[in-house]
Amino acid sequence: TILLDYAQHLAIRVVDGMTVHEDRMRENLNLTHGALYSQRALLALVESGRSRDDAYRIVQENAQRAWDEGIEFRNLLAGAGLERFATELRHLQRTEVLEAREPFRAGQKGSSAMPHKRNPIVSERITGIARLLRGYAQAGLEDVALWHERDISHSSVERVALPDATILLDYAHHLATRVVEGMVVNADRMRANIDLTHGALFSQRALLALVESGRSRDDAYRIVQENAQHAWDEGIEFRDLLAEAAPELDLDAIFDPTAFTRHAADIVARLDSLD
Question: N or C: more exposed end of the chain, with fewer CB within 10 A?
């Protein structure tokens, strides 16, 4: 969708007539990185005394280069988003976390040295591709400055970087889709990891509840900190300790894990609306 933004129109037709979106128009104008002024630049060069062929060559090389570097940076940003997803999944697949993992087909080999392992090789591949996309964007920046705007040192770079980067990004999207569709989620392990803190992870909600009940923030912070750390260090349930320290609180509301996921459905719905 990032690359398709280049092809969007400057105005949107609606049933009741033409609606002008000035912010969107400015955004789309900026997509060309100034290349839309190429005709004015051409005329100005001719008027300054340059031949038309010379002026055309100067404008064409620089306008196209500005456009090309814009594509490279959009590839970079798209790759960075995929890398963030891949890095998170690689962490979740670690043995001591193991809350989610990549699909692992029957007969597939994991570590060559430790057969029991299921390495996140696809997510690692996506991470590597993102590094390449950043490198191609850097190469695009190197193409900006040319000797008196006359050499073609940028040409060999763009002939490799532009097709390679777009093909790599498409491949990375394919890999990410494959991982998402086959992802294995371990809900029981998620619950176990949550319970490792003996409820201390609800400390923020306990702090806010104490402040809302009339306690000063410093007093509330001291109560929560002491009891949360005690729960974590001694393996005692934070809820039980908090019940003694602040019996006026609604503990069911504080220790409700669904409070952390209450917006998840809306977020997923926004993603689904992009299809």
Answer: C
